[in-house]
Amino acid sequence: MSVRAYGAHAADKPLESIDIERRAVGAHDVQIAIAYCGVCHSDLHQVRSEWDGTRYPCVPGHEIVGHVTAVGGDVTKFKVGDTVGVGCLVDSCQHCSACDEGLEQFCENGFTGTYNGRTADAPGHTLGGYSQSIVVKDDFVLKISHAPEQLAAVAPLLCAGITTWSPLRHWKAGPGQKVGIVGIGGLGHMGIKLAHALGAHVVAFTTSDAKRQDALDLGADEVVVSRNAEEMAAHANSFDFILNTVAASHDLDAFTTLLKRDGTLTLVGVPEHAHPSPNVAALIFKRRAIAGSLIGGIAETQEMLDFCADKGITAEIEMIAIQEIDAAYERMLKSDVKYRFVIDNATLAA
Fold first, then answer.
1. 20 to 30 Å CA-CA from 326: which of 14, 174, 253, 296?
2. Pairing of strands 178-182, 201-206
3. Which residues contact 227 (CB under 8 A, 6 or more apart)?
4. What angle separates helix 160-170 from helix 298-311, to the nearest 10 degrees?
């Protein structure tokens, strides 16, 4: 099936309208008409070959919300008309120890990304959500139970939401814990919302005093300007857990020293250049840890979506037409968005 999409043919080319082919619906497939697709910083990195291995044409997009238009004969979990989502994964080996535990993001044989992942379908790699529709294996489709008017703001939950939810759950953020969220962007703003909803005492870290009120409005109990040495020192040795969403290279010691004994600093952003080597003594003498986390598995993503629907949690978004995508990328580079762009995929027909 031929559908309209937006993609790039080279790293130095703008995204443009292209026609792509979607596979016929197989026995275990779900065909989805895409209503909205969030814009992740990963999209920009991949389409511009800032990450190795970009395959062209590159059609980004892994924060997908839409409606089921067809299902395969063996599909039992979904029916035509259902509201569904697709996140960063569309396949995995489904037989390794990670997949057996519902941790498909750590598939030992390599998961298939929603775009730029190798596939038997033409053109040999997956094409993402900047398109009118997509066909996905039913095991990698998620149920959306938010209200219809919230669907655009649900889209970023499929990446920004799960990327922050997974570590918050793994390190058991909740009542009685002091949790820090470093960075108030697409990921960080969701981290604040989720940590607050989980019942933790939430401290947001920002480099800009101008974001103080924004962070409080999102649910932070306190806000620390990380460039202010006195504000940072006031929180020394006090955090159970800090989630660091910043993707730029920076000094991690400033945050590890804020952890209690046995506290953990978890990173979810991959910097273009490596972080400076941390002070090992700060880790050894209080048994602190620096860890990493990658999106989440399918079951965990469904858990997050259900939690957010129950609590009325969505992302803060700015809706754009697909024709504005390159301008949105340039604004994203300047952090000029509160806090996630979302494409109205109906504009692909224009």
1. 296
2. parallel
3. 207
4. 100
* 193, 146, 266, 298: CA torsion to nearest 10: 170
Return the amino acid letter for 157: L
Among the listed residues 279, 204, 199, the one whose alpha carbon sits nearest the alpha carbon of residue 242: 204
For 2-159+316-349, which CATH superfamily applies? Medium-chain alcohol dehydrogenases, catalytic domain (3.90.180.10)
Entry pTM: 0.96
- In angstroms, the first-to-last Cα distance of the chain is 19
pLDDT, one tens digit per residue, over 140-167 is: 999 999 999 999 999 999 999 999 999 9
CB 310 within 8 A of CB 116: no
CB atoms within 10 A of CB 328: 21
pLDDT tens-digit series, residues 13-27: 999 999 999 999 999
What residue ranges of the chain are covered by domains with CATH 3.90.180.10? 2-159+316-349
Q: Does domain 161-292 have CATH number 3.40.50.1820?
A: no
Handedness of CA 157, 159, 164, 170 (dihedral sign): positive
Phi and psi, residue 338, nearest 5°: -125, 100
Cα separation, 348 vs 47, in Å, equals 18
Q: DSSP letter string over 192-231? A: HHHHHHTT-EEEEEES-GGGHHHHHHHT-SEEEETT-HHH
Condensed to tens digits (0 to 9), the pLDDT of residues 25-75 reads: 999 999 999 999 999 999 999 999 988 899 999 999 999 999 999 999 999
- For the segment 171-193, the average pLDDT, to the nearest whole number, is 97
